[in-house]
Amino acid sequence: MQQWTLADNRAILHVDMDAFFASVEQRDDPTLAGKPVLVGGTGLRAVVAAASYEARVFGCHSAMPMVVARRLCPQAIIVKPKGGRYGEVSREIFEILARFTPMVQPISVDEAFLDVTGSKRLLGDAVTIAREIKRVVRAETQLTASIGVAPNKLVAKIASDLDKPDGLTVIRAGEVQTRLAPLSIERLWGVGPRSADRLGKLGVHTFGDMQRLGHEALDAVFGSSAESMWNRCRGIDDRPVHADHGAKSISHETTFGTDLESADAVRAVLLDQAEQVARRLRAKGRRGRTISIKIRFGRFETITRSVTLEQATDRTDEIARQARRLFDAWAFEPVRLIGVGVSELTQSTEEQLGLFSVVQSAQQRAIDRASDTIIERFGKDAIRRGGTLS
């Protein structure tokens, strides 16, 4: 994994393809050009994977239930997702990005952070590089990208969303707080609908409102996360761009035909998912530090929560324990989707364990190895952990 040394003159780009899945469909099928397109399934539980900008005019957006999107835009053309095709186009785009800098951090199939600090001497300033990326992407893929240019990842991500589609927004180091000030606080990473409601009661509706309020006033409401939120509202972000060309995460999720109305039933699924994720980690020789869960409730609200461990792990029991802790922190309500993921992956190495952890770790690893061997020979259903039988 490569990493630039942090510097005050960093030049960070956030490249975000415009309505990627829908745009690929419109490009590949000219009869869809200029028409409202929804990419997704048509079943009762289907959600919108992507909405063309013609469909967004009617209020359609990704992650929306398809039945709602069809009600908003009855004339929309629904296209079944073609995952393999999107993967092919994504690889073309990332190959283009790699021509401008080796420091490319993929976030998903259609967006990435680029640190072009080291490319400026050869290719020109960050704005020149961003314009050339947009030109080459359009020329070689017939697709458009919106790019944010800023001194850090947080501000670049916000900037790329300010002038879509086909936008280029530049926020320079000396103008960060001023440019962020009028924006809705809901654009701030980490602020969802519930946090926005709590901030509204404090009179905070924009970045500027929070900048003026100060983090002390946030402490009573947001506790230990208040200072971090305060820094973000001022555009402070020291995270480096990581160029890791291996897998970024391993995850598994399940959508249920009918909502699960029992917390124990959800915990059983979480354990099964944790086991599958852990087995895939071990098969790839990887471990991960950050364990996350994704929950979509019966009312379609989706949340994600994560915890970062001191040491990376590939142990089923540890991943399952952390996933359950994250799940149990929420008051239960019917669930229609649940998922477990592990990120911040590293190559598997020996754990640095305390004296009293050695025996327990050895026992758990023996269990994991035996389970992996049985499943490899006889299939997934040959052995089950007791908690998955709920």
CATH topology annotation of the largest domain: Dna Ligase, domain 1
Strand content: 15-25%
What is the N-to-C order of secondary-structure elements (H for helix, E for strand)? Answer: EEHEEHHEHEEHHEHEHHHHHEEHEEHEH
Provide the spatial order of strands within the biggest beta sheet. Answer: 6-7-2-8-9
The whole-number mean of residue pLDDT values reads 84
Number-wise, the strands total 14
Please state the structural category. alpha+beta
Low-confidence runs of at least 5 consecutive residues:
1-7, 350-360, 378-383
Main beta-sheet annotation: 5 strands, mixed
Question: Can you characterise this structure?
Answer:
β12 (286-297) and β13 (302-313) form a beta hairpin. The protein is of the alpha+beta class and 390 residues long. The strands form 4 sheets. Strands 6-7-2-8-9 form a 5-stranded mixed beta sheet. α4 packs antiparallel against α6 (126-141). The longest helix has 22 residues, at 263-284. It has helices at residues 20-28, 53-56, 66-72, 83-98, 120-123, 126-141, 153-160, 176-180, 193-200, 207-213, 216-222, 226-233, 263-284, 316-328, 358-378; strands at 2-3, 12-17, 37-40, 48-51, 77-79, 104-108, 111-115, 145-150, 168-170, 242-243, 249-260, 286-297, 302-313, 335-347. The protein is 40% helix and 23% strand. It has 4 domains: 2-17 and 85-176, Alpha-Beta Plaits (2-Layer Sandwich); 20-83, MutS, DNA mismatch repair protein, domain I; 181-233, 5' to 3' exonuclease, C-terminal subdomain (DNA polymerase, domain 1, Orthogonal Bundle), CATH 1.10.150.20; 249-389, 2-Layer Sandwich (Dna Ligase, domain 1), CATH 3.30.1490.
